[in-house]
Amino acid sequence: MLVWNFLCILAVKIGKTIYQVKHELLSDYLIQELKKPTIKFRAIFIL
Fold it and tell me: Tens of pLDDT along 24-39?
């Protein structure tokens, strides 16, 4: 609930909807993770 309140206040300040703010934050996070993943992935093939 605390995060939702923060998003509400932020959205009002910048003149956007809560959903626009949420989408932008998640989009920025996803782009950052695709460029430099925080969890390394290693494929293991078992034949």
Answer: 999 999 999 999 989 8
Give the separation between CA 46 and CA 3, rounded to whole angstroms.
43
Rounded to an integer, what is the distance from CA 23 to the centroid of its chain?
Answer: 7
| pLDDT score for 45 | 83
Q: What share of the chain is helix, strand, coil (3-state, %, to 5)?
A: 65, 0, 35
Predicted TM-score of the model (pTM): 0.61
| Residue 40 backbone class (left: φ over 0; alpha: ψ -120 to 50; beta: rest) | beta
Element (H, E) at 31: helix 18-35
